[in-house]
Design a protein that fits this description.
- InterPro entries: AMP-bd_C (IPR025110), AMP-bd_C_sf (IPR045851), AMP-dep_synth/lig_dom (IPR000873), ANL_N_sf (IPR042099).
- With about 300 residues, this protein is an alpha+beta fold.
- The chain is built from 8 helices and 14 strands.
- The chain is globular.
């Protein structure tokens, strides 16, 4: 619903041309398309921007001065990508938050407002969001919890066809729609995504959001992409495991993996550093938006446990 409104109907109503880049990802093709057609507004997913970042010097061969706005949606936007866009393109990427079920953007970085790297922005005027605890109470600012939208909101879904119990689970706290995302809100109303509720890692009683670890991993010069999950562990319940794709020119060695672990440990709390890192040729992603499929990475580890390979 929301994708149709902003991807099709809104451009048509404003007599704007819609440009879609198909086929397999290639940075040169994207840049060439933007340069030749003088694209002014670019809307894509963080995975695409991360892949462009990893291509390095390719950008210098193209004139992208037509770009006025760049927006991101679909998954959290790593601060590293925001810094890259500002330096390389001269345009800030504005992150946004919405769901098919909400019918519209609800949390945004409006043009002209301050951007806090790592934040999805602030509630759109007229929208009220809350961060709730396990019993539906609003938590203090800076405290992670369940991201919820104050009801009634006219764009919210009316039902889930044939699954009333599932529908009711989104509205179990009176006056709130539960998004299924975990986040926190700072004193300036900016909302920071932590993880999907089912992606949260529980290690030795510590609740760890994978996004923070993934963001730090891709700051390392050797890493192109990263996905983080909780791997089942007999002692800790789960341990933090990172799956990474290396950039061109880097080769997997025990020394490099240890360097990466130390890099994360030195820049985040010690318990957030991956206990294990596995190099992959590519990470599993959704076909359309390019979101990293943590559930598939998790399933790989569960299957290893089932086979008796638990550490």
């Amino acid at each position: 619903m929301t994708g149709s409104v902003y991807g099709l109907f809104a451009p048509w109503l404003n007599r704007a041309t819609i440009v879609i880049q198909g086929g397999r990802f290639k940075a040169e093709d994207w840049y060439k398309l933007i340069a030749e057609l003088k694209v002014t507004i670019w809307y894509s997913a963080p995975t695409a921007f991360r892949m462009l970042l990893s291509q390095g010097d390719v950008l210098k061969d193209y004139d992208l001065s037509s770009l006025r706005h760049i927006l991101s949606v679909g998954e959290p936007l790593n601060p590293e990508v925001i810094y890259w866009a500002w330096k390389a393109l001269g345009v800030r990427i504005h992150d946004t938050w919405w769901m098919t079920e909400t019918g519209a953007h609800l949390i945004v970085n409006l043009p002209g407002e301050k951007i806090k790297p790592g934040s999805m922005g602030r509630p759109f005027p007229g929208v009220e969001v809350g961060i709730l605890d396990e019993v539906g109470n609003v938590v203090p600012r800076g405290t992670p919890g369940q991201l919820a939208v104050k009801t009634p909101w006219p764009g919210l879904m009316k039902e889930i066809w044939g699954n009333k119990d599932k529908f009711d689970s989104y509205f179990k706290y009176d006056g709130w729609y539960l998004s299924g995302d975990l986040a926190y809100q700072d004193e300036d109303d900016y909302v920071f995504f932590q993880s999907r509720d089912d992606d949260m890692i529980n290690s030795s009683g510590e609740r760890i959001g994978p996004f923070e670890v993934e963001s730090k991993l891709i700051e390392h010069e050797a890493i192109q992409e990263a996905g983080v999950i909780g791997k089942p562990d007999k002692v800790r319940g789960e341990i933090v495991k990172g799956f990474i794709v290396l950039r061109k020119g880097f080769k997997e060695t025990p020394e490099l993996l240890e360097e990466i672990r130390i890099f994360v440990r030195n820049n985040l709390a010690a318990h957030l550093a991956p206990k294990e890192i596995e190099v992959m040729a590519e990470l599993p992603k959704t076909t359309i938006s390019g979101k990293i499929l943590r559930r598939e990475l998790k399933q790989m580890e569960i299957e290893k446990v089932s086979a008796g390979n638990i550490v």
